[in-house]
């Protein structure tokens, strides 16, 4: 493991999603401790996307930006909102020069699948339909996210393709949660890795799926046909339970004729890009923004 990252492991709280309410409080506390980037060069606006129910979004608009990404926070499907995601959404907007629409989707277990997917998809449709009002080039709208949010982004891309929805030009998937089955080598081996453990992954999927059977729109790795999906950048962490399902998904996209950039970060663990003092974390965050700039021609 990267020695800069390893030094922080004793400071990490116990990873646990058995009690979602307690987990949310802990997650909010961790997010509040992350230094927010300078947002002087952008407009930030809170809005509610009309849906049933309305979906809160926070829009980060760098000066002169026209390309956009619908951005979905992580948190195991049960934690997070536009406030906890602020340090990351603002950082991506500032580093990339892209409009970031951060989505406050409904959380499980109170709102199991497909609530979060429905909210994310509603925001994508709204962004495309109101592109002129929002100052967005409708041909340059991407989807992306961290962890469970990246899994949601992959599902949004699948749904948009199947339902002939708004065109998505790119997927930015950082350590996505794509497969509820936990059958890969990394899922079976990295059972007590920092921040994301096997039990935490299982609890997140259990809360999210509820009584519904797993489907491709819940767990994108279950999709049989990946052809026609947007180009993707997939980033993985070496010591992450999700690692192998992410690499497998990237290979399957390639085999389906989809252009993919896969970046496997050695010495890292799930969510370690949040340790901003580490050199490798700085490179991880910079690369996500650079991939977005390249894909959206910013």
TrEMBL record:
This is Alpha/beta hydrolase. Keywords: Hydrolase. One of its GO terms (molecular function) is hydrolase activity. PANTHER family: AB HYDROLASE SUPERFAMILY PROTEIN C4A8.06C, ALPHA_BETA HYDROLASE FOLD-3 DOMAIN-CONTAINING PROTEIN-RELATED. Pfam families: Abhydrolase_3. InterPro entries: AB_hydrolase_3, AB_hydrolase_fold, GDXG_lipolytic_enzyme. Residues 69-272 form the Alpha/beta hydrolase fold-3 domain. Coiled coil: none annotated.
């Amino acid at each position: 493991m990267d020695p800069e990252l390893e030094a922080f492991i004793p400071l990490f709280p116990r990873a646990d999603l058995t009690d979602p309410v307690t987990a949310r409080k802990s997650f909010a506390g961790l997010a509040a401790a992350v230094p927010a980037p300078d947002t002087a060069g952008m407009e930030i606006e809170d809005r509610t996307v009309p849906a049933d129910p309305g979906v809160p979004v926070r829009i980060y608009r760098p000066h002169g930006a026209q390309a956009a990404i619908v951005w979905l926070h992580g948190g195991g499907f049960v934690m997070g909102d536009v406030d906890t995601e602020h340090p990351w959404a603002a950082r991506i907007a500032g580093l990339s020069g892209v409009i970031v629409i951060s989505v406050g989707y409904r959380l499980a277990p109170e709102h199991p699948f497909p609530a979060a997917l429905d909210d994310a998809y509603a925001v994508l449709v709204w962004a495309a339909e109101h592109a002129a009002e929002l100052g967005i080039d409708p041909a340059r709208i991407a989807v992306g996210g961290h962890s469970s949010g990246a899994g949601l982004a992959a599902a949004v891309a699948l749904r948009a393709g199947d339902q002939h929805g708004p065109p998505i030009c790119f997927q930015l998937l950082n350590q996505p949660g794509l497969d509820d089955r936990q059958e890969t080598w990394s899922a079976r081996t990295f059972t007590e890795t920092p921040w994301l453990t096997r039990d935490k992954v299982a609890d997140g999927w259990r809360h999210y799926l509820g009584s519904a059977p797993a489907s491709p729109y819940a767990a994108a790795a279950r999709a049989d046909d990946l052809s026609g999906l947007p180009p993707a950048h997939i980033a993985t962490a070496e010591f992450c339970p999700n690692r192998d399902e992410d690499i497998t998904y990237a290979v399957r996209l390639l085999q389906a004729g989809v252009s993919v950039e896969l970046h496997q970060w050695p010495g890292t663990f799930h969510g370690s890009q949040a340790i901003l003092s580490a050199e490798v974390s700085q490179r991880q965050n910079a690369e996500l923004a650079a991939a977005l700039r390249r894909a959206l021609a910013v």
